[in-house]
Design a protein that fits this description.
The complex is a heterotrimer. Chain A is an all-alpha fold. Chain A has a single domain, classed as ABC transporter involved in vitamin B12 uptake, BtuC (Orthogonal Bundle). Chain A has 13 helices and two strands; from the N terminus they run H-H-H-H-H-H-E-E-H-H-H-H-H-H-H. In chain A, strands 1-2 form a two-stranded antiparallel ribbon. Chain A is globular, with a radius of gyration of 21 Å. Chain B has 15 helices and no strands. Chain B starts with a helix and ends in a 7-residue tail after the last helix. Chain C is built from ten helices and 14 strands. The chains are: A mainly alpha, B mainly alpha, C alpha/beta. At the B-C interface, helix 2, helix 3, helix 4, helix 8 and helix 14 of B face helix 1 and helix 3 of C.
């Protein structure tokens, strides 16, 4: 994709605006596509097994997808800048244990403080990643692969083989992970707020939109005056903070936490983002798409369970979906390129 | 990519051999190759520290069991190195290993003899590699995304094939061969196999036109394409080789542990990538040696063994050290380059003070 | 690049030379070990029941996985036994519950030349070759809790008679669901020896005519991982709306399932039993999620295994059926068929007695 997906309005040449509208249109189609897929899946499952759309079942579905949606939002920020963060699972694990440990030794600690501390720990991890990528100029794949190992090792060292038991955590905290208000689980509400906040930042704030510029054309962005290093660093810190938030919520939901919390999550999170339309090469995608992607993946899992299909098909299904999404994005990308080229050729000729 | 090749390590540039009276360090580097010299240095440190932590470290036993532990990662790293030199990546190798193990288990349950099962597993691995290769070359999809997808797909298929079951009753003659030693020495059979494959891949990469093409493609794909290299076909071959070797690794681990199942080899792809990058193969492609990869494997194995044997240091440090090594292997040269650039700039400024600042 | 290669090759040769040099130096050591242990192997044929327990015995105990509270309790018992007898134990375990990680640990442990290895196996056959190699070096092998292949160990310390666990668990759930309805099993990992032997007995027990109205619909695997067990429970409930009972013969599984059920509309309607810790389950017994569950004292299993290891290493027993030995504070034990030693009875916990225990 040669143009950034969302640009500033008005003083732009007419063809530029039209090109942008074309890409925005494709954007919407892409997200619409996931909604359609989601709808179809729920419909088919509901026909085969009506229990699926019972309130309880849908609630579970939303609950399971919430933490992944939050992580996917953070991952979107990083992928859009043409980077990747493989360490989110390990950061979640660190933060989850930190929160649990903190609360079980200090049950009187106010919950907002726990959340802030957990997110803070995640942000520090993200900062570490970001510095290595921007200042150290080490490719994000290498950095986050290394920190995936290193942070997990730290978690093991810290826990030293023990775990936090749900029995030692204050009820108020655990209720946050399982209870609902007006039928909607707290966890889902938190996820919605996060996705909205991050999504709007990416869309309406210049600092957010510049991430797209960096992803579609890093050199061009730098020449145009974008402080690439600072933006990318922010993206990593934000992704880390969101992973930290995910960790605290993880502890609230499951209660018992050990050093293996979040192992393997990075794969599901990246798959959710890519399925949701965030191109792995950067420059396009939205947080809403990523969140929908997380919901779709969660739905697949739940559908398979309810339909009593062997759980083994889940992983294969997720992999296949990821491949289809990547291929689809490539196809759409090529079509847009040709369309844009044809248009400017027509104008020139 | 071209810019990267130009600013690559001095050792790749035409022999800037140090003067005869240069420092011993420079002479070692000149003789052995900069990166490999560094790895040897780290190896020596590891040996010394390891022996200090446990007197059992520098024994034949350590080598036997330590190298056995890394057998599968080691052979997969060889094929992976070629893929990375071509500026691609394959994260699905451990899942192909698992699929191969699962197929082995399933076919064994159906009564097929091992002699027939093994070639079938290799073919399955080749097909998986071809699948990756076609998606990357024909559909033009980025290999990172593709192999993240196939990582999930292939392992998922492994579970579909054999479920939660595992097969543990392979004939003793084969399992003994898999974890046994070669001709009464302390060298495991799998290491002999690895040595053979290492020589094969080494010759392929460094001494054949095919290998030279792989370097060229990694350094500058467009130029290679225009100079007549069948880029797509070569990449496809690399992915197929990675798949076959991964399937072979699957057979070996199933026999070595007397267990064929779908959940084997979790995380092996990360260790293999670490070994390759640590071995001096650039993630951007176009640079690296098989020898470097072998040294990196030795280093990783040595560290792992030292920490396992140590009574005082927890084995949790293995992960932290591996992560640090991985990042350091790229960060180090970056920093070194920047330091030497600043030094060069400063010295040229002091030599020509009247030129002023650019 | 070709110009790099000759230098790189020289580097490799240098490295190999280094290794060869060290290996040759060390070679002598290994041979000496083998000779020494060869003598040891011969002497294990005869036992001397009147011999003293050797002082300064060193053992290594290998749990299924680190970080599992049950394993921690169990292996603390081994620590207790060894220090009581003037020896020492080192706990060395894998970070994930797999057999291949245990193999690496067995090999590393053997290099430290312990007198005995005590292991809770993740898979009965996968670890057998490594254990047999260890035995050849004169290391005594004791399996505990989750056994290994019979010819790979001298003694197997079983907490309860295998059949008793399976039967009692089925009886417990049957009683709670009125002898009719669908039930499911939430197990640990698919290969764990102890899980599979208990589940086998459970299925056999269910064939009894008095349980003819009970149907086992699924065996799910929580991998002894809290989150997975939690989610598997969720999956069981959504896939089987008529589910009446769940048996979870794993402390991780039963506590995760209880936690899920206590917050779900199925609380009290889907009955849960299993093998759990009083400390973890107390809350759920009191709030009505769980009526009763069972266990033994994990620490005693480890203690007994430690005593067995010490007796083996001192030549007082060899693992043959009928041999007797004294196991410290637990009293006298006799070795049973196939070298199996059974700790004792199963305890059932419920509202009445749950506060009497402190583990």
């Amino acid at each position: 994709m040669s143009t950034s997906a969302v640009g500033p309005p008005a003083p732009a040449p007419v063809e530029g605006a039209r090109a942008r509208r074309l890409t925005e249109w494709v954007f919407r189609i892409r997200e619409l596509g996931i909604v359609v897929a989601l709808g179809l899946l729920i419909l088919v499952t509901a026909i085969l097994e009506p229990r699926f759309i019972e309130a309880d079942s849908l609630r579970n579905l939303a609950l399971n997808a919430s933490i992944f949606a939050i992580l996917a939002a953070g991952q979107t920020l990083v992928i859009v800048t043409r980077n990747v963060d493989l360490s989110v699972g390990s950061v979640l694990g660190l933060s989850a244990y930190f929160a649990g440990d903190l609360l079980s030794s200090n049950p009187g600690l106010p919950l907002p403080v726990v959340f802030l501390l957990g997110m803070g720990l995640g942000a520090v991890c993200g900062l570490f990643n970001g510095i290595l990528v921007t200042w150290g100029q080490v490719p994000a794949l290498v950095v986050t692969l290394g920190t995936l190992y290193a942070f997990r090792g730290l978690a093991f060292l810290w826990t030293d083989g023990s775990q936090v038991n749900a029995e030692t955590l204050p009820d108020a905290f655990l209720d946050l992970g399982t209870d609902s208000i007006l039928g909607v689980p707290y966890l889902v509400l938190i996820a919605l707020v996060v996705v909205l906040a991050v999504g709007q930042w990416l869309r309406d704030f210049r600092s957010g939109r510049e991430l797209y510029a960096i992803g579609s054309n890093p050199d061009g962005a730098r020449l145009a005056g974008v402080r690439s290093d600072r933006r990318v660093l922010t993206a990593f810190v934000a992704a880390g903070a969101l992973a930290g938030l995910g960790g605290v919520l993880f502890t609230a939901r499951f209660g018992t936490v050990d050093a293996t919390a979040g192992v393997g999550y990075e794969l599901t999170v990246i798959a959710a983002a890519v399925v949701g339309g965030v191109a792995i090469f950067g420059g396009t995608g939205s947080v809403y798409g990523a969140a929908l992607g997380a919901l779709l993946l969660g739905c697949i899992t739940s559908s398979l369970i309810v339909l009593r299909v062997e759980a083994f098909w889940q992983q294969a299904a997720i992999g296949a979906l990821l491949l289809i999404a990547v291929a689809l994005d490539r196809f759409l990308g090529l079509r847009i390129d040709t369309a844009l080229r044809r248009r400017s050729a027509r104008r020139a000729g | 990519m071209l810019a990267d090749a130009a600013t690559s390590e001095p050792s790749a540039a035409p022999s800037a051999a140090p003067a005869a009276g240069a420092t011993p360090g420079a002479r070692v580097r000149g003789v052995l190759g900069r990166w490999e010299a560094l790895l040897i240095g780290l190896l020596v440190i590891t040996f010394v520290v390891g022996q200090g932590l446990s007197t059992e470290f520098l024994t034949a036993d350590s080598f036997t069991t330590g190298s056995l532990d890394l057998s599968e990662v080691a052979i997969m790293a060889l094929a992976l190195a070629l893929v990375i030199v071509a500026a691609e990546i394959d994260l699905s190798i451990a899942s192909v290993l698992a699929l191969s193990s699962a197929v082995m288990a399933d076919l064994w349950n159906r009564g097929l003899p091992l002699e027939l099962i093994m070639p079938i597993c290799l073919v399955v691995g080749g097909l998986c590699g071809a699948f990756n290769g076609v998606l990357v070359t024909r559909l033009g999809l980025p290999s990172l995304a593709v192999t993240i997808g196939t990582l999930a797909l292939f392992r998922g298929l492994a579970f579909v094939v054999i479920g939660d079951e595992s097969v543990t009753d392979f004939p003793v003659s084969w399992t003994d061969r898999a974890f046994g030693n070669f001709a009464g020495t302390f060298v495991p059979n799998t290491m002999v196999l690895f040595a053979g494959l290492a020589v094969g891949f080494g010759v392929l990469l460094h001494f054949t036109p095919f290998g030279r093409s792989v370097f060229a493609i990694g350094a500058n794909e467009e130029a290679s394409y225009f100079s007549g290299l069948r880029v797509k076909r070569i990449k496809l071959i690399l992915f197929v080789m990675a798949g076959i070797v991964a399937a072979l690794a699957g057979i070996i681990i199933s026999l070595r542990n007397s267990t064929a199942a779908a959940n084997v080899g979790q995380g092996f792809e990360l260790t293999a990538v670490t070994a390759v990058l640590l071995g001096g193969v650039s993630i951007f492609g176009g640079r690296g040696t098989i020898v470097g990869v072998i040294l990196a494997l030795l280093l990783l194995g040595g560290i792992q063994k030292a920490l396992l044997l140590s009574e005082s240091i927890s084995s949790y440090w293995i992960q932290i050290v591996t992560g640090a090594l991985l990042v350091g292997s790229v960060l180090g040269p970056n920093l070194a380059r920047r330091v030497s650039e600043t030094r060069r700039r400063r010295s040229s400024q002091s030599q020509h003070p009247e030129e002023g600042h650019p | 690049m070709m110009s790099e290669f000759p230098r790189a090759l020289r580097a490799l040769l240098a490295a190999l030379a280094l290794i060869a040099a060290f290996a040759l130096a060390a070679c002598g050591e290994t041979k000496d070990d083998e000779e020494a242990s060869g003598g040891g192997a011969a002497s294990e044929e005869k036992t001397d029941a009147t011999a003293e327990i050797k002082k300064g015995l060193k053992t290594v105990s290998i749990p299924k996985q680190l970080g599992n509270p049950y394993e921690e309790f169990e292996h603390s018992g081994v620590d207790e036994a060894l220090s009581e007898l003037g020896g020492s134990n080192k706990i060395s375990g894998p970070t994930e519950a797999s057999a291949s990680s245990q193999i690496s640990i067995i090999n590393a442990a053997v290099q430290q030349k312990p007198d005995a290895i005590i292991i809770a196996g993740n898979d009965p056959d996968a670890v057998a070759p490594a254990l047999k190699q260890a035995a050849k070096r004169g290391v005594k092998i004791v399996a505990m809790d989750s056994g290994v292949a019979t010819d790979a160990r001298s003694v197997f310390v079983n907490q309860i008679e295998t059949a008793l666990v399976g039967k009692s668990q089925v009886e417990s759930i049957a009683k709670q669901i009125g002898n009719q309805g669908e039930i499911a099993i939430l197990s640990a990992t698919a290969n764990a020896t102890n899980q599979n032997s208990w589940i086998k007995v459970m299925k056999e027990t269910l064939k009894d005519p008095k349980y003819k109205d009970i149907k086992l619909v699924k065996t799910a695997y929580g991998d002894d991982d809290d989150q997975k067990s939690f989610q598997e429970t969720q999956g069981l409930i959504s896939a089987y709306p008529n589910l009446k009972g769940i048996i979870s013969p794993t402390t991780v599984g039963v506590s995760a399932a209880a936690r899920y059920l206590s917050k779900s509309p199925q609380k009290g309607k889907v009955k849960l039993t299993g093998l759990g810790f009083p400390s973890q389950m107390s809350k759920f017994v009191k709030d009505g999620t769980v009526d009763e569950f069972q266990l033994w004292v994990p620490k005693d299993v480890g203690y007994l295994a430690g005593q067995v290891a010490a007796n083996l290493a001192s030549g007082k027993i060899t693992g043959k059926e009928g041999e007797k030995f004294k196991a410290g504070r637990l009293g006298d034990y006799t070795i049973g068929v196939d070298g199996e030693v059974i700790l004792g009875p199963l305890t059932t916990f419920d509202k009445a007695n749950i506060d009497d225990f402190d583990f």
